Amino acid sequence: MKTLFALLLTVGILATGCDSGTSDKAADKKKNEPGQNPLNAPTDYLGALAKGKKSSESKLDVANVNSAITQFQAGEGRNPKSLKELIDEGYLKAIPVAPRGMKYNFNPQTAKFEAVAATP
Question: pTM here?
Fold first, then answer.
């Protein structure tokens, strides 16, 4: 009887303890995605706030500069040659600083000001 019990215990340990190497990596990865693990909720929330702040700052800066460009075009009858010209003429107070990970591009020919992701 003891031998049978030992044999069944050994088989049970081997059956449950052996890893076939086919763990579900997609399921493990999904647990670490935002919104999947309640323990990560504070971190996910702060990350979403930072991302939203960066996005809203860049959109507001772009809207302000584009408004200054439109006012310059209406007042001067041409596109500004540079963003510095907008400041010199009083249409803009200062050139905005892009949020981290982004940069601003200005094309004087088209008078287009836009925010783009900075490439390393």
Answer: 0.62
